[in-house]
Amino acid sequence: MDDVPWTSTPLVGRSTEMAALLSAVDEAKTRRAGAILLSGDAGVGKTRLLDEVATGAHERGFGVLVGHCTDFGDAGLPYLPFSEIFGRLAGERPDLVESVLTNFPAIGRLLPTHRLIGAQPVPQDGPLDRAALFDAVLGALTALSTSEPLLVIVEDTHWADDSTRDLIGFLLTRLTSQRLALIVSYRSDDLHRRHPLRRPIAEWSRHPRVRRVNLSPLNADESRALLNALLPERLPEAEERRILDRAGGNAFFTEELVAAASLGDADAVPPDLADLLLVRLDPLSDDARQVARVIAVAGRRVSHQLLTAVAGLPDRELETALRELIDAHIIEHPGNASYYFRHALLAEAVYDDLLPGERVRQHAAYAKALQDQTVPGTAAELAGHATRSHDLVTAFEARVRAGQEALSVAAPQEALKHYEMALELFPEEGSSIDKTWLIVDTAMAATLSSQHLRAVKLLRKALADLPADAPIQQRVELLLPLSEISLVIDHDHEANEAASQAFRLVADEPASAFKAKVIALYARVSDALGRPMEAERWAREALQIAREVGQESAAGDAGITLAQLRKRAGDPVAAAKQLEEAAVRAQLAGDAAAEVRSRYLLGSNHFDLGELASAKAALEYAAQRAGELGRQWAAYGFDARRMLALTQFTLGEWDEAAETARADAMTPAAAAAGLRSVGFAVRSGRGDTSVAEDLELTRKWWSLDVMLPLIGLQPAVDAYRQLGRLAEAEKLIADVSALLEDVFQTEWFMAKIRFSALGLQVLCDRAVTEPSAAHELVARGAELLAAGHATAEKGLPPGRVLGVEGIAWLARLEAEWERLRWLAGVDPPTPEELVATWQRTVDAFGYGFVHEQAWSRVRLSTALRAAGRVADANEQAQLAADVARKLGAQPLLDELGSAADPAGSAALTARETEVLALLAEGRTNRQLARELYISEKTVSVHVSNILAKLGVRSRTEAAAVARRDGLLD
């Protein structure tokens, strides 16, 4: 298990960096696992430093495992460095790996012997199990570290694939008390603004067990010391100064400049870096130079077996050439039957120096050796060489195999890249691979990568390209995923069109599992679009067909649809039982999509019924199973996580909600944007007004994921209200409403009840600051009230009723309408009527919506004061204040002012202090209203609040207390 390189190059300087790296090693020995992110420019000495750290770790009794990332181009082999780590371990310690596989069988997917072309796949219980794979890697490393502490080094992560980055991120978050140290290196100069590693590095750096070490260029003294160590005898001072100036503190450049200068005339040292590096090859034999070129085409590292097959030299000549390259310090041989360039820059220079024809021929030689299985290799390697040698037929087939292999190890991002390149290369005729299957599998990979719109566009194009006389099944196989994915992203019209077309096409076909699946999807779409009778009829028909052909699992969707219909018919207990049964059946049948959908809907149904504790438990399990099945970013898996965060927010578990909604380096961009909406709710609730601008920055995702603006609207509106930017709040409500009307193809979408209540809140704020516009504001409020009521009546399909949240927001809508008329002084309700409507709202949110109930209590407190019920008002204010303190809801506390602390009534709001000052001067309510440009009704509310907060009965007493306590100073 010891992978300790050896190098003759001296290590100069780096004492600080070396100490930092070894401190992580020492801490790991005492069961404090940690990680170092090692960055530095190309050639600055990262690998050399890591060699020294590995040696130091070995001397301290550590096992050392090293894995490298490689530049495969557009798409590579997922988890390559971990395959290298476990593959090398299997070769050196087969007994150890056998034990690891017994306890963590998923590791078998990463062993190189199972990833080679023609290898037997590892038996799998399900299609994907990303979480199990990640847990297995962590478990294996933890188990290995029990016998001896472990140092794991992953080099060159600037070339890492998406899945490798995700796995590294996972490991970093799980470092606790293992005897494990992890060092991850990358080129900092390669990380341009759009580089995919930039975001993960920022995320990883936030973990408390992760430290960053940057390897800067050597200083002048260190550069001079390195130069002296490299020179067999001193050069003239001017020449040494020239080398040092050109190297700029870069250790590798210093070595190369010294080597070039030692060849003869110093003036002949080329000015260009690539030419400088190639000078090292000039004194070598033709065979040695040719072997260097062959290794460069392999991509810095190549096995002896593959090199022998491709180099085209007899064994003796090849060995002589290799010895020459090793002696010249151009390549290194770590003792595991492979060779690699001492530095990637040198490999790149040699490769770039090849003529186009030479590159094509060498890539073709590699492709032939891999394709014939003369030597072991992966489909991803074969695809890369075949593509670069312009063997498009081989490249196509290899891309397909590489995509399948990527899916088998829960790497849908890489599978998508391979599949998309395969589609570009699809031969016009003669392929044994079905194009429709490939398109559908590509769409699945896109969906699993949370790129639903990409999948929809692909399927649309495939359908448009189909000839009119295409077989029915071929067309339907494309329509099914198009309908399902469109339904997920709320493109209901397209989902209905696709499902209906597929339904019509199979109507006259004989009974089959495929037909049952089509009809089940049609039933599901019918239910989603509010056609319950049609949905029930065809769901039962799908189940009947599936039973007839002996494949009931083919209509799993139909059972879930019937459960949903049962819930809406008023039997939630039976519906929950049916969903539980559907989930178990799907799990036994290996239908991951149906299982995750069942478990998500079970939690969602509990949420709709106001059973928040049950919803939380069900959604936690749904999200867990989605992760275990590799569907955490696919439909319903991601929805389960977001709904869980929303449930936690509703329950007042804000810290937990923020954690559930937190995106990290493993989160796809679309999913990260979607989760952010719940994070906005927590941030805005705690007074972070930057939420308003942050929601605007997510606009590009709104049409893809309408839940993002649907959830994010209220936090942003609250932020705009805190900032006094009421016009922008109203515009945002209008923009989101227009979007949802377009997406749902109706103006009566159910969220409009809440949106109308939010609009009335904004109008109430305006009524305070724009008293002259009172009648206009009330007229606009009447329109919002009517829209909310119309939505409650028309927005639900026949047979459905408002859930507890809808009922609560309808009560809030009516209460805000009463409040608006009260503040504007236009047909105002009596204080008793105002109290009654806000009491109904408090009760309605009592199902568990902690924050909204607290805000309703604040409004009820104000109404009670206006009705002269000071004690009751204080009680409601205290209940609201208790919640606000628990949540950290500063805006709520600010609204309460000193009412939040009756023992200390000093803190009036700014407006109340202004009113008190004028009141102390003897102003009447009418005079106050005219002077402050607010309505008399608003003045009356402020006066009532002031009397209650100061604990007095009259305006005269209030003025006296204000003077006595210095409240007006």
Which features characterize this protein?
mainly alpha, 8 strands, globular, about 950 residues
Summary of the model, kept short:
The protein has 969 residues and is mainly alpha-helical. Strands 2-3-4-1-5 form a five-stranded parallel sheet, sandwiched between helices. A three-stranded antiparallel sheet has the order 6-8-7. Residues 265-269 have low confidence and may be disordered.
The biggest beta sheet reads: 5 strands, parallel
Rg computed from alpha carbons, rounded to a whole number of angstroms: 34 Å
Unreliable stretches covering 5 or more consecutive residues:
265-269
Beta-strand fraction estimate: under 5%
Given the C-alpha coordinates, what overall shape results? globular
Structure notes:
It is a single chain. With 969 residues, the chain is mainly alpha-helical. 65% of the residues lie in helices and 4% in strands. The chain is built from 47 helices and 8 strands. The strands form 2 sheets. Strands 2-3-4-1-5 form a 5-stranded parallel β-sheet, with helices on both faces. Strands 6-8-7 form a 3-stranded antiparallel β-sheet. Strand 7 and strand 8 form a beta hairpin. Helix 23 runs antiparallel to helix 24, helix 24 (513-528) runs parallel beside helix 26 and helix 44 packs across helix 47. The longest helix is centred in the last third of the chain and has 21 residues, at 774-794. The radius of gyration is 34 Å and the shape is globular. The termini are far apart. The model is unreliable at 265-269 (pLDDT under 50).
